[in-house]
């Protein structure tokens, strides 16, 4: 719960809910889980939320509602981007709707801020927002109960009016670490009423194609392009190729963030994977932000000085010996495998092996092919639900 943060795509974090449980490979080295079981294990908002294991602290599935943190964004007068539940998941299956209602009452009362929500439970998020207009009275009652002492009727009406539509200051996103998770979560995100929809591909653990996502609504299967056909190049969702297109509301992905994993047990990210996402976004005119390489850097992304710094000084090398790196290295293939065998077909299919160096987050940096990618989505008017 900090007014400042080092996360590249936000300005502050807000944790009215803490705690979670592991649901997919992207959770394995969760920094929030590690902190909750180590440095913050005795903090009232984290105590008892993890169990020890051979691999380190692991979420035990217990959730905590930190009521003392609820009004925090209301005290921040300067507009900022706020990452909601950075140390939990707002739409975890064990979070009651009443907790979410109170959090959205705060968002409705703080239009000066932009709230960035990120979840791995896209189906729960979709269900909540689909029902939100019917729950508007509940959200307003919570807001009035907490903060309406001076003028409860006016505050109630303000919240009711605000949550009847997708809140323009709330960006809804899903975390997708690989193609399987993208196929599962992005369709629910596209079906969720939102001002801005975004994707966090971090930690990126494999190749990701956002151009072909399966969507199922009312038992009718659509084959859609999440970046292009849903608003950037067409105002329709397209049925299967032999069926005429059907008019639908514009549903788009408005922003993509990608990054590698950090921490002592981090897994490397192949440059082919993140380049592909960057190029897909450029083709569809979708803002793209590259957050970090993480713990590992690809040799193709390193400067001569960085590469030289990974080896012993030349004066200490035996002239007939193979250069021995001072840091951990291995070969990563574009398909995610880590063996050192070079297969000719790998080059033909863009899965060429890449030597990776474990440099640490700071040394690895966040340049991709020599550039920094820091794009953000533009706000747009939100139609009625």
TrEMBL record:
It holds the Pfam family DUF5131. This is Phage Gp37/Gp68 family protein. The lineage of its organism: Bacteria, Pseudomonadati, Pseudomonadota, Alphaproteobacteria, Hyphomicrobiales.
């Amino acid at each position: 719960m900090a007014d400042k943060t080092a996360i590249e795509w936000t300005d502050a974090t807000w944790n009215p809910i803490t705690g979670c449980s592991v649901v997919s490979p992207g959770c394995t080295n969760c920094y929030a889980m590690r902190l909750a079981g180590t440095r913050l294990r005795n903090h009232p908002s984290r105590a008892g939320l993890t169990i020890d294991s051979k691999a380190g602290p692991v979420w035990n599935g217990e959730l905590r509602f930190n009521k003392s943190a609820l009004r925090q964004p209301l005290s921040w007068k300067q507009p900022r981007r706020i990452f909601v539940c950075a140390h939990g998941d707002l739409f975890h299956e064990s979070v009651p709707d009443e907790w979410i209602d109170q959090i959205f009452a705060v968002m409705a009362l703080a239009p000066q801020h932009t709230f960035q929500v990120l979840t791995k439970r896209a189906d729960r998020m979709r269900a909540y927002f689909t029902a939100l207009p019917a729950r508007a009275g509940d959200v307003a009652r919570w807001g009035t109960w907490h903060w309406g002492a001076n003028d409860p009727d006016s505050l109630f009406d303000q919240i009711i009016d605000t949550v009847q539509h997708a809140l323009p200051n709330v960006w809804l996103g899903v975390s997708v670490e690989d193609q399987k998770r993208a196929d599962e979560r992005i369709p629910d995100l596209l079906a969720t009423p939102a001002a801005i929809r975004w994707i966090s591909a971090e930690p990126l653990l494999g190749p990701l194609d956002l151009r072909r996502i399966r969507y199922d609504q009312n038992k009718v299967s659509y084959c859609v392009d999440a970046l292009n056909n849903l608003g950037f190049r067409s105002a329709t969702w397209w049925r299967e190729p032999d069926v005429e297109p059907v008019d639908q509301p514009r549903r788009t992905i408005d922003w993509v963030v990608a990054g590698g994993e950090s921490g002592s047990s981090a897994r490397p990210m192949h440059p082919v994977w993140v380049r592909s996402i960057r190029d897909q976004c450029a083709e569809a005119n979708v803002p793209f932000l590259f957050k970090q390489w993480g713990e590992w850097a690809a040799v193709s992304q390193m400067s001569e000085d960085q590469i030289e710094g990974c080896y012993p000084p030349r004066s200490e090398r035996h002239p007939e010996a193979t250069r021995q790196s001072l840091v951990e290295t291995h070969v990563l293939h574009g398909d995610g495998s880590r063996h050192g065998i070079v297969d000719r077909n790998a080059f033909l299919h863009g899965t060429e092996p890449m030597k990776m160096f474990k440099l640490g987050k700071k040394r690895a940096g966040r340049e991709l092919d020599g550039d920094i990618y820091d794009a953000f989505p533009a706000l747009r008017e939100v139609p009625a639900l």
